[in-house]
Protein: M50 family metallopeptidase
Organism: Actinomycetospora flava
Amino acid sequence: MGVGLGVNDVPIVGEPVAFGAGFIALLFVCFSTYIARYFYFYAATGGSLLTLVGLAQPIGGYAIDEKGLVFGRLVVGGRGLPVVVLAYIAGYIGPPLLGVAGAALIAAGNPWAVLLGTTFLSLLALLVAGNPLGFTIPLLIVLGLGAALFYGSGDQQAFAAAFVVWFLLFGGIAGAFRASGLGGERNTLAGRTFIPAVVWQLLFISVAIVSLIVGGQLLLRPGYDVV
């Protein structure tokens, strides 16, 4: 099909493609431990990077840590406690909220925007990658989604868009619950804000669960709308 808006004419919401992509994304998150977590680390760090961009802060770079930390390591270019706190929070709530945004685009009949947006942001991430793994993950996404955009049929592009959204939603759930065992930014936030780490984790879990419910409804229930 090539690059174009043909995928927007392919029905996704409530169709087998939405259920199938969700099932495969769930299997990927649950059973592909050593592969899926790096893509989640990238999505989580991406939430922090987008926050810094939104706050007009310089970005020092990022790296995905091979040791399996909760997040890829982020070099916060901005200064000041509010910037650092917001960047860390975005690392947890970024993936599920981006998943909801993608589900809303699909429900609005524009899955092409999900593919294009993911590819474009991953291209930008290549420019600030700080280590080989941090460069490889967005490169794989650019190559995979780029192939879907240029050479995939409308159905294949629709599946790719739905898979991206489901991965963000399921990955957000897994990341929020996993934080209790791995420490990471929830403890950093506790130290910087004097709010207990368990409160931060409950917040992250709540956001992830609500995002999964809303995003799932948008993908699986035709006519569902957020009011």
